[in-house]
Amino acid sequence: MDTIYAVSSAPGKAGVAVVRVSGPRAFDACGALCGDVPPPRFASLRVLRDSAGGRLDQAIVLCFEAGRSFTGEDSVEFQIHGSIAVISAVLAALSVVDGLRPAEPGEFTRRALENGQLDAAQVEGLADLIDAETEAQRRQALRVLSGDLGKRAESWRVDLIRAAALLEATIDFADEDVPVDVSPEVTELVQRVRSELSKEIAGVGVAERIRSGFEVAIVGAPNVGKSTLLNALAGRDAAITSEVAGTTRDVIEVRMDLGGLPVTLLDTAGLRDTDDQVEAIGVERAKMRAEQADLRVFLLEGTEPALITPKDNDIILRSKGDLLEDDVASISGLTGQGIPELIARMTAILTQKSAHAGIATRVRHRDAMQRGDADLAAAQLHLQGGEETADLAAEEIRAAIRALDSLVGRVDIENILDEIFASFCLGK
User: Which domain range does residue 398 map to?
Assistant: First the structure.
C-alpha cells in the first residue's frame, strides 16, 4: 500500500496547520524531515529540514504505530506553523521522499474503514461531525461516530445469527442431539429484531432532518407581512419588502439556529388566485414547499381563511399586530412584537419533533433496515410451516443479515457455523 500525505487542517493561513502522513513508509518520511523518529504517541519538538538540509520549520511531531492511529497504519502528524509558505515547503519536502504520494480526497478515512478502525456508519458520522453547524447536529453526529448504530446493528446480528444457527441445526444436524422444535426461540429472536427495526425506521426521518435541517414555511396572502417577518427573524434584509402585493415570486430560504437545531425559514409567495403566469408558478411552489415543510407559520389578516389547511402543531397568528387594537395571537415583523414568543414556540415544537430521532440518520440506513425487516417478515411466514419450510425461513434470515450488514459492512457464513458448533457441541 502506498504511503500518503496531505494537510489535515483547514486550508489557508492559521496559527497551526497539521500535515498527516500514513502508510508503511510514514516513519521513513518522519526520519527524512526530522533526522530521527520520535517515540510513538509522545509529542516531540523537532526542526524539519528538506533533502538539502535547509530548515523548513520547527514543529511538534506525533508518531503512531499501526493499530493505534486513525487510519490503523503507521502514521505521523506534523503540527507546523500555519502559513501558506510553510505548508507548501513541508509538502514539497514530503513529495521527494521515496514511496510517498499526495492523498486523494477522503483516503485517510477510507483506510480507517478498510483497516477496521471505523465502520461504514461511523464514516458517515465523521462526515456529519465535520459538517455540523448546530449543537443538535454535533450530538447526533457524535452518537453515530462513537459507534452507537454499529452497536445496535451488532446486537441485531447476534440475534439473527443465533436464529439462523438454530434453523441450520434443525436442517443439517437432525440426527444429532439438538432441540427438535426451535421455532419458539427463533420466532422470539426474529420478532425482537423486527420491533427494534420498526422503532429505528420510524426515527430516520427526524434524524435526517437534524442532519440536513428542519424547514419552517411562512405562509399567507400577499402583502400580509411574510417577508418582513422573515427579515426580522433573520436579523437582516434577506427578502425584498414592498407594499405592492405579489413582490415575492419564488421561495426565499434563510438558515438559522433555533435552540441548537438547524432550521431553514421559507418565505413563500402570497397565496391567491392570479392570472399572472409567473406569480401563479410562485403560488404553486409556495403550496408545495409549505406542504413539505416540518412546520408552517400562518399569517392571517382580518378574517380571511387560510388557503392551505393547517396541520397539527402549525402556528396561526394575526399579522401586523402593531396596527391591531389587541395583541392576542398577533405578531409584527416591523416592530418585533411577538417575535420572541414565536421563536420560543417554533423551538419547542421542533425540539419535541427531534426527540423522536433514531440512531440511524440517512435514507441509506432506512432502506437497509426496511429490506431487512421485509426479509424477516417473510421468514416469520415460513416459520409457520414448521420443519418443511425451515430452510426457506433460514434463507430469509440470511438475507436479512446481508441487508443489515450494509449498515456497517460485516457478517459471513462462518459466524453461523461458529454459532452452531459452539452452542450444540457438534464439532466432533
Answer: 148-208+361-424
